[in-house]
Amino acid sequence: MNDLTYDRFLGGRLALWQPRKGYRAGVDPVLLAATVPDGVTSVLDLGCGVGAAGLCVAARLGVAVTGLEMQEGYADLARRNAVETALPFEVVEGDLTRMPASLRARQFDHVIANPPYFRRDASVAADDPAREAAMGEGAPLEAWVTAAARRVRDRGSVTFIQRAERLPELLGLFDRFLGSVQVLPLVPRAGRDSQLVLIRGRKGGRAAFRLHAGVQIHQRAAHADDSPDYTTTIHAVLHDAAALPFP
């Protein structure tokens, strides 16, 4: 990948190389990273891309993070970003459905994932092959949840970010492979339906399901100009590296 941009995250605390075209990390992986709880010592980022979520975790908590990425170009950029940021982020190239041996032998305190959002039996594929691989579902959600559940230690936790329309499927999978399932809706603006959700499960957990009040992303009721207009909570996450804990 030669046509790159150098983009800043966490209020400039983190800067990453990513392709100008194709899949580009935005707000979603930063929000996902902000949910990783204090006290963990190891984190696995499934489908890490250029390393946005995993490096945000490493920057905020200073813990060791391992990223698994299937696309060679994105894995190379993730390694470059890890070296240039001097953060404890290891990148393993491979497919989560055929987990590399180096990962099969390990378990982690917490696993995060931002799986492709769109089922291609109900949507149109992207023209760019790299963007399609990141946004269009290849491996089913069950493969993602299975991989996460196998790699997380007993009593460890797993957090995904996904479109709200996929929540029914995810609830069944998290209940099947994990436990103590919680959902935190992300609401774009007051009075709007949730478009994204954060879902967490704990390996071996037995607590009752919890559906939390939604976290609002933007302050104004409608988009008025080019300003981001984030709420105080989300601004703190995106610009001050604050946590976004499950209640």
From TrEMBL:
Ranges for domain Methyltransferase small: 31-120
GO molecular function term, any single one: methyltransferase activity
PROSITE patterns: N6_MTASE
Enzyme Commission number(s): 2.1.1.223
Keywords: Methyltransferase, S-adenosyl-L-methionine, Transferase
PANTHER family: TRNA1(VAL) (ADENINE(37)-N6)-METHYLTRANSFERASE
Protein name: tRNA1(Val) (Adenine(37)-N6)-methyltransferase
Example GO BP: methylation
Gene3D superfamilies: Vaccinia Virus protein VP39
Keyword NAD among UniProt keywords: no
InterPro entries: DNA_methylase_N6_adenine_CS, SAM-dependent_MTases_sf, Small_mtfrase_dom, tRNA_Adenine-N(6)_MTase
Keyword S-adenosyl-L-methionine belongs to the record: yes
